Each structure stands twice: as structure tokens, then as C-alpha cells.
From TrEMBL, chain A:
Protein name (database record): Ferrous iron transport protein A
Domain Ferrous iron transporter FeoA-like: 3-74
Keyword Metal-binding on entry: no
Pfam family, one: FeoA
Automatic annotation (TrEMBL), chain B:
UniProtKB keywords: Cell membrane, GTP-binding, Ion transport, Iron, Iron transport, Magnesium, Membrane, Metal-binding, Nucleotide-binding, Transmembrane, Transmembrane helix, Transport
Cellular component GO terms, alphabetical: plasma membrane
Main location class: membrane
The protein's name in its UniProt record: Ferrous iron transport protein B
Location(s) in or outside the cell: Cell inner membrane; Cell membrane
Residue numbers binding Mg(2+) 2: 25-26
Listed SUPFAM superfamilies: P-loop containing nucleoside triphosphate hydrolases
Amino acids binding GTP: 11-18, 36-40, 58-61, 122-125
Sequence similarity: Belongs to the TRAFAC class TrmE-Era-EngA-EngB-Septin-like GTPase superfamily. FeoB GTPase (TC 9.A.8) family.
Pfam families, alphabetized: FeoB_C, FeoB_N, Gate
Topological relation to the membrane, as annotated: Multi-pass membrane protein
InterPro entries for the chain: Fe2_transport_prot-B, Fe2_transport_prot_B_C, FeoB_GTPase, G_FEOB_dom, Gate_dom, GTP-bd, P-loop_NTPase
Source organism (scientific name): Cellulophaga tyrosinoxydans
């Protein structure tokens, strides 16, 4: 099943999959949103949008619409194992 | 040859770049604008070892050299243009120790431009707390540069940095990364077309515009003509470049950088949870806003009172010490009144920027953006619009400049267009004076009517802004990609020095920016009000004196005189009865007679002054527009004040002060003078509830600020928007004020 950043729960992590070239703004890539990097959902705003992620050491807030474009491979949460 | 070294400070936002700049330059700095655009230009002088001086430019914060905004393009253009007088001999890249990886992306790009580049790792004092260890020597070797570990908070490492800057010639300028591998064939073609140019520089010139939103400029038109690739293709290459750079950086950091993740969490997570909580988050934000308003209204009252009485005294002093004449009047009534009208705003502006600086410095502002984005979006705004809308309560000019952080053009444009509705500090003096005059003093559940009115006006301003945003969102047909990325920086204790500099800077720019216009207008007004050509003006004394001899004082003045005299007599008799004063009955009569003459003379002078003004140039101008403003409940004097306010609102009070004090020897406080004004038609006080509310509403909605219009023109790069704003807001204001007056009168 395909999962995107928008579907993560608070504290969940995933690894960014390869994505199509033109989807994300270059600024997001510069902040570390690159294929293979780990992404963690830190906070969700009170009205469920925007969301606040930690990717590659960068703490950034993005809107849900953009988060839906970032596909993930889910890694099991270390705490649950 | 001059010994001055050009140094460019460059770095990601939130890395403490400004702190480093402040540490290097101290008060030897100035803030201006880049020619033709509103991007702030900060530069300063720093003394280096061995008598060398450095000219330091603090470039706008950027994540990379792939520009997405005007601010960023300023930084890139300087680094690309060898002919610029500020072209750096050495670039200093400021990195934050916690985000080293991301900061190095920018570093490698600059290094590849073959500019000698020093790496500053800032906030080094946090290293041990965050479990970070860095092998500096290894990092220096791999990046082929020199590194300064700095802590601006603890004032550590700045001397080492100065040492490195003065020794910049020994830095290697060889690039870190060979970018051509992302598209060998393309770069080969470039090389044959431009054999003399540096390939990486060419590449940056070509891609400068790729990520831009609408209004940007085209310095490199020639260069783009050989951009043989389409924009999406170039963008893809930029992505490839970014990935390539991160590969390089990751490789190095794996060896030279270690982080113990267990030590890294803590305060940040806790604070985030509270500050972005669905109840506490909004509550805290609301409390902070309340505190800011409290500071602007209550705390700044003390210094403002002092300033006001200082200028009143100064004006009095000038009139009493200098020989009477045109020159003395110019100083006392034109210049001093004008300067006083500017200085009076300083406490409020300083307070507002103090708070904004604190919120930005601590990292809290980003949380507000995060909290508010979803709500603001419903009105076609962005979470980032909240900053301009709040700053707008000080002044629309910095507020509109602050919209630059909004990447989405439509959201940004709407924010720019509605910000002038928020109640700026220039409206405040108008509000305060009118409210004091027309709103009764009683209380409603412990809150004074006057305070409630003021609050209501702020709410009206804010909701009009939001409401117009909603409408604009519906009618503006602009397509632009949603693009919202906000960095959530770590929480920090604000640095006193940074906050102090910001406050100083913003206050200075207000005093010297808006202040010039206000002063000029004050002087022009003084001239127009104290000169005239008609015989009525020249023979004013004679005409008024004849009138008083024949008909007595005007009804209002004679009534006021009667009341004043009765009070005076009563007080005098009371003091005798209480034995605080021992004078005979005869002496009382004497004293009363003297007082009467004094008051009568004063009333006469005021009538002369008023008659003169009525027949001065300004009087004629005011009368010409009377038919337009009469339906709003104003007379020609208010008409003039409204007219001059179209240059800047705060001029309203200054204009009235000038109108009423011209020719009068007594420096009555302006409020008393206004309260004494009578509507010649109704013989009732001119400032009554109906005309007062009408004025308040007019000022709440009208676009009366030439400086704001100029800024909007610059930011939108077209006259269409500011002119639309001017016409729409003013017509709207007129209609609302008209309705209010006609209902209430």
C-alpha cells in the first residue's frame, strides 16, 4: 500500500521514496526532503493542517496538500518493537 | 590601493547570521535599501587585526543559490557580479551547529563559485548539550577551507573569525564539487559557447529565474537567451545538483560529525506541544497579543506625555526668547510642531518592534504561522500573513515589506492589499483625540467607554481586512501554485543586542522616512495658514475688533468667558473663606476685573486668529472642499486636516494643532481648543458624537498614506494595485462616514 507523509500519525516515521521530478518545490529539496531520507511527523496543527515534520534534521511545516505528494516506505516504529 | 576588504555574510535563515554581523560591526552599521527594490541592505565596518578594515555586507538569508524570492536573488546577484563594488573578496558562510548538513549545501555552492569562503559554525555552545561532536580539522581538510567555531551568545570565536578574514588570501578557491556531471553534454556545449566563463557561474545565471514568482526582474536577459533547455528540464537539473551536493556532504559528515540522538530531544518537543496545542496554543497567542496592545497603549503613555509637554514648552520658550517675527513663528509653530508630531510616535513604534523582534528571535513566530495557517487560508491568506497583519498595527510600510516571506503570489498580493485596513499607529493619535472629545467618560462592566471604542476600532480594522481578503480571494483570478514551507527553528533566548538593534533600526527608519514627509507638510501648512492675499486677511485685527465692539464676542466665547469668570470668582471667595488667602473685598474686585480683561483679550486674540485663518490660503482651500465634507459633519478646518492626511494620517492632529495655534499666544492643549470649536451653523460643539464617529470611521477605512502607496507600488511592480487601493478605500470610507453621520446627527 502506498503511504504518504499526510497519512503519518504523530511520532511516526518513514523513508522518502523516489518521486517524480516536478512535484516538489526546490526549496523543500534543499531543506533535505530527498529520496532515501527519513521523515518524522512531529506535530499536527489544531485544525489538522499544516503539519510539522522533521526531515534530515530540518524542522519544517508544510501543508497537507504538499504532504500528500511525498510517498513513503514505512519503517516500524522502534518503540513498538 | 585601499586596505578595505569586502566581506559578504551569507547563511540560512535562523543561523544567527545577524548576531555575527552585530558582533563584528557593533554600532558601525547602517541599513538602507538596494537601489530600486525594497530589500533591506545591511552593511557595516569591522576593524581587523593589523590595522586592516573590513566592509561587511549582511546578505538576506537563503537556503541555497537557487533563488525563489527577490531577497534571495539579491544575495545571488552580488556573488555573481564581479563588477559590483561590493563584490566580496571573501564570503563568510554562517552555519548553525544543529543543522550543519543543510547549511553546508549553501556553503558548497558558494565555494564552487571560486570565492574564498570561510565557514562559521555558530551556536557552538550548544554542541555538548545536544550531543554533537565535530572533527574540525577533518572537516577543514575535506571542505578545503578554514572554519571558525563561534558562539555569539557567549561571545566566543569572533576574534578567530576576524583573524581568518584578514588572512583570506591564503584560502583555497578550488571548487568542492564538479557540477558538470549532472549533465555532461549540456555543460560541454556551454563551455564551447562561452570558453572564458566559469561554468558553475554560468549555470547559476541561467537558472536564476527558474523558480521565480511573477514580479522578478531580469538582470540576466542575455544569459537566458542561451538557456537551451526548458524550465522543467532546468529544474530537474537543479534537483540533480541538490542531490549530488547532499551526497558529497553526507560522505564528509559521516566521518567528521557525530550526534548522540538521545541528548538532542527535550525542551523543543515540550514547548512545541504546549505552544501549538489546540487550546493553550491559541490562548497563549491571544495573551501575547493582549500584552502587546497593553504596551502600546498604556506603557507608552508616560513617555508620550513627556514628549508632548516637552515640545509644548519648547515652542513656548522659542516664542518668549526670540524676537517676534516670521522666523520665530516658523520655528515655534511650523518646525517644532512638526518635529513633535513625529517624535511622539517613537514610544509606540519602539514597543511594537520590541515585541516583534522578541517573537522572531525566540522562534515563536513560526509557531504562530503554524497555528494560524489553516484559519487564514479560508480568507485567501497564508499563515504567514499573520505577521504583516500584526505588524500593520504599527505601520503598514514594514508590514507590507514583511509579506515577502509569502511564497504564493496570490496570497501575498491579497495580504498586501488588505494590510492597510489594520489600525496602524498613525491612526492612533487621531482616534485618541477624537475619542477623548466625543465619547463620554463612563464605564461599562469596569471598562471605560473610551477604551471600548478604541478596541472596537481595532476590531473593525482587522475584520475589514479579513473580509476584504475573502472578497479578493473570490474575485482575483490569479493562478499560482500553493507553496508553503516554513522552517520551525529551535527555541532560543533572545539576544538583547539583536533585539535592541532591531528596535533602534526600525525606529530610525520611521523617523527619517515618514518623518521627512510629516515635517515638510507641517511647514507647508504653517505657511498656508499664516499667509493670505485678501484685504480681509490683511486687516483682520481691525475687522474683528470692530465686530466685537459692535456685537460683542461670539456666543460661545462670551458664554465660556462667563463660566470662567464665575468659577474664578468662586474659587477666590472660597480661598478667602478658608483663610488660605487674606485679601480685602476691594482686592477681590480688582483681581476679578483684571482676570476679566485677561480672558477677554485672549478670546479676542483667538477670534482674530480664527478670522485670519479663515481668510488665509488654507482657509480658501478648506472652503473650496466644504461642500464635499459637509455631509460628513465636518467644517472647513476638519476638511483641511482630512485633505492633508492623504499624505499621512498622523498629519491630522498636527494640522489641527497648526490651525488652532496659529496667531494665538496661548499654547492651549489641542484637545481643549478643539472642544471649544463651534459649528457656525448649529452653534453647537463642532466635535460631537455624530461628526466624531463619522471622522473615526473615515480614518478607519480611508487610504491616507502616500508612503504605503509607494511601497505597494514597489512590491507589486505596478500602479494598478496601489491606485485601486486608494480609490476603493477612500470611496468606501466616505460612504460609511456619510451613513454614520446622517444616522447619528
Amino acid at each position: 500500500m502506498i503511504k504518504t507523509v499526510a497519512e503519518l500519525k504523530r511520532g511516526e516515521k518513514g523513508i522518502i521514496k523516489e518521486f517524480a521530478d516536478d512535484i516538489l518545490p526546490i526549496k523543500l529539496l534543499e531543506l533535505g526532503c530527498l529520496p532515501g531520507n527519513e521523515i518524522e511527523l512531529v506535530q499536527i496543527a489544531p485544525l489538522k493542517d499544516p503539519i510539522y515534520i522533521n526531515v534530515n534534521g530540518s524542522h519544517i511545516a508544510i501543508r497537507r496538500s504538499m504532504a500528500k505528494l511525498i510517498e513513503l516506505e514505512i519503517i516500524e516504529d522502534a518503540h513498538l518493537l | 590601493m585601499s586596505k578595505q576588504i569586502n566581506v559578504a555574510l551569507i547563511g540560512n535563515p535562523n543561523t544567527g547570521k545577524t548576531s555575527v554581523f552585530n558582533q563584528l560591526t557593533g554600532l558601525n552599521q547602517k541599513v538602507g535599501n538596494y537601489p530600486g527594490i525594497t530589500v533591506e541592505k545591511k552593511e557595516g565596518i569591522c576593524k581587523l587585526p593589523r590595522g586592516v578594515k573590513a566592509h561587511i555586507i549582511d546578505l538576506p538569508g537563503t537556503y541555497s543559490l537557487n533563488t525563489t524570492s527577490l531577497d534571495e536573488s539579491v544575495a545571488v546577484e552580488l556573488l555573481l557580479n564581479k563588477n559590483d563594488k561590493d563584490y566580496p573578496d571573501v564570503a563568510v558562510v554562517i552555519a548553525d551547529v544543529e543543522n550543519l548538513k543543510r547549511n553546508l549545501l549553501l556553503f558548497t555552492q558558494i565555494k564552487d563559485l571560486r570565492i574564498p569562503t570561510i565557514l562559521v559554525i555558530n551556536m557552538a555552545d550548544r554542541m555538548s548539550r545536544k550531543g554533537i561532536s565535530i572533527d574540525i580539522e577533518l572537516l577543514e581538510e575535506k571542505l578545503n577551507t578554514k572554519i571558525a567555531l563561534v558562539s555569539t551568545r557567549k561571545n566566543v570565536g569572533i576574534d578567530h573569525l576576524k583573524e581568518l578574514i584578514s588572512d583570506y588570501k591564503s584560502l583555497s578557491i578550488s571548487p568542492n564539487i564538479d557540477t558538470t556531471v549532472i549533465a555532461p553534454e549540456y555543460f560541454e556545449r556551454l563551455k564551447t559557447t562561452f570558453p572564458k566563463e566559469d561554468l558553475y557561474k554560468l549555470w547559476l545565471v541561467i537558472t536564476q529565474d527558474v523558480n521565480f514568482m511573477p514580479i522578478e526582474k531580469n538582470l540576466f536577459q542575455n544569459a537566458t537567451s542561451f538557456a537551451t533547455k526548458s524550465k522543467p528540464e532546468l529544474k530537474r537539473l537543479q534537483q540533480k545538483e541538490t542531490i549530488l551536493r547532499y551526497q558529497f556532504i553526507n560522505g564528509i559528515l559521516k566521518q567528521a560529525h557525530k550526534i548522540d540522538l538521545n541528548a538532542a530531544k527535550g525542551l523543543r518537543a515540550t514547548l512545541d506541544k504546549i505552544l501549538t496545542h489546540k487550546v493553550f496554543g491559541y490562548l497563549i497567542f491571544f495573551l501575547i497579543l493582549l500584552t502587546i496592545f497593553q504596551a502600546i497603549y498604556v506603557w507608552s503613555e508616560y513617555p508620550m506625555d513627556m514628549i508632548e509637554s516637552f515640545f509644548a514648552n519648547a515652542s513656548e520658550l522659542v516664542k518668549n526668547t526670540l524676537p517676534p517675527g516670521v522666523f520665530t513663528n516658523l520655528i515655534a509653530e511650523g518646525i517644532l510642531a512638526g518635529i513633535g508630531g513625529i517624535v511622539i510616535f517613537i514610544p509606540q513604534i519602539a514597543f511594537l518592534f520590541l515585541f516583534i523582534a522578541l517573537l522572531e528571535e525566540t522562534g515563536y513566530m513560526s509557531r504562530v504561522v503554524f497555528l494560524m495557517d489553516r484559519i487564514m487560508r479560508q480568507f485567501g491568506l497564508s499563515g504567514k500573513s499573520i505577521v504583516p497583519l500584526i505588524s500593520g498595527t504599527a505601520c503598514a510600510i514594514p508590514a507590507i515589506m514583511a509579506t515577502r516571506t509569502i511564497e504564493n503570489w496570490k496570497e501575498r498580493l491579497i495580504t498586501i492589499l488588505v494590510t492597510p485596513f489594520t489600525t496602524c499607529s498613525a491612526r492612533l493619535p487621531v482616534y485618541l483625540i477624537i475619542i477623548g472629545l466625543v465619547i463620554p467618560e463612563g464605564r461599562f462592566i469596569g471598562l471605560s467607554y473610551q477604551a471600548l471604542t478604541l478596541m472596537l476600532l481595532y476590531l473593525i480594522g482587522f475584520f475589514t481586512a479579513i473580509f476584504s481578503a475573502m472578497i479578493l480571494n473570490k474575485i482575483l483570478k490569479i493562478k499560482s501554485k500553493t507553496f508553503f514551507v516554513v522552517e520551525m527553528p529551535n527555541y532560543k533566548l533572545p539576544l538583547v543586542k539583536n533585539v535592541a538593534y532591531t528596535v533602534l533600526e526600525k525606529t530610525k527608519s520611521f523617523v527619517f522616512g515618514a518623518g521627512k514627509i510629516i515635517l515638510a507638510i507641517s511647514i507647508i501648512l504653517w505657511f498656508l495658514g499664516s499667509n493670505g492675499i485678501s484685504d480681509d486677511f490683511k486687516n483682520a485685527e481691525q475687522i474683528v475688533e470692530n465686530r466685537i465692539t459692535n456685537q460683542g464676542l461670539t456666543k460661545f466665547n462670551s458664554d465660556a468667558l462667563e463660566i470662567d469668570m464665575a468659577n474664578y470668582e468662586l474659587a477666590l471667595k472660597d480661598s478667602v473663606a478658608n483663610k488660605t488667602n487674606t485679601i480685602s473685598n476691594l482686592a477681590i474686585q480688582d483681581s476679578v476685573a483684571k482676570k476679566y480683561t485677561e480672558l477677554f483679550e485672549r478670546a479676542k486674540r483667538q477670534e482674530i486668529a480664527s478670522y485670519k485663518l479663515e481668510n488665509s490660503y488654507m482657509g480658501y482651500m478648506g472652503k473650496a472642499i466644504t461642500p464635499i465634507v459637509e455631509p460628513l459633519g465636518y467644517d472647513w478646518k476638519i476638511g483641511i486636516a482630512v485633505l492633508t492626511s492623504f499624505a499621512a494620517r498622523e498629519v491630522f492632529v498636527g494640522t489641527l494643532a497648526t490651525i488652532y495655534s496659529v496667531g494665538s499666544d496661548e499654547e492651549d492643549t489641542i484637545t481643549n481648543r478643539m472642544a471649544a470649536e463651534v459649528n457656525p451653523k448649529t452653534q453647537k460643539p463642532l466635535f460631537n458624537l455624530a461628526s466624531g464617529i463619522s471622522l473615526l470611521l473615515f480614518y478607519a477605512f480611508a487610504m491616507q498614506c502616500a508612503s504605503t502607496l509607494a511601497i505597494v507600488k514597489r512590491e507589486t511592480n505596478s500602479w494598478k494595485w496601489p491606485l485601486g487601493q486608494l480609490v476603493f478605500m477612500s470611496v468606501f470610507a466616505y460612504i460609511i462616514a456619510f451613513i454614520a453621520y446622517q444616522i447619528l446627527k
